[in-house]
Amino acid sequence: MPDHNMIKSINEADYGTELAHLKEEVLEAYQQINNALESASEQQVDQLKDFKEKIDNIQIHIEND
Q: In this entry, which stretches build a coiled coil (predicted)?
């Protein structure tokens, strides 16, 4: 029978690793958006701003975790 405390520890470690990876991905998304905004058309700027708002919401959830 599995040790539930050991499984919980492994799951928490995996969660921490995945959370750190998500934070890196969010940072990379911000960088890509900022780079794209430098040469974007008006329509693309609107799309990029919408995307940035979605990333902002993800960032808020990450920080509140």
A: 19-54
In the chain, the amino acid numbered 12 is: E
The span from the CA of 54 to the CA of 62, in Å, is 13
Length in residues, the chain: 65
Q: Which helix (H) or strand (E) holds 10?
A: helix 4-37
Q: Which residues contact 62 (CB under 8 A, 6 or more apart)?
A: 19, 22, 23, 26
Owner of token pair 């058309």: 41
pTM of the model: 0.74
Q: Is 40 exposed, middle or buried (0-12, 13-18, 19+ CB in 10 A)?
A: middle
Question: Which distant-in-sequence residues (6+ apart) come within 8 Å of 59 by Cβ?
Answer: 26
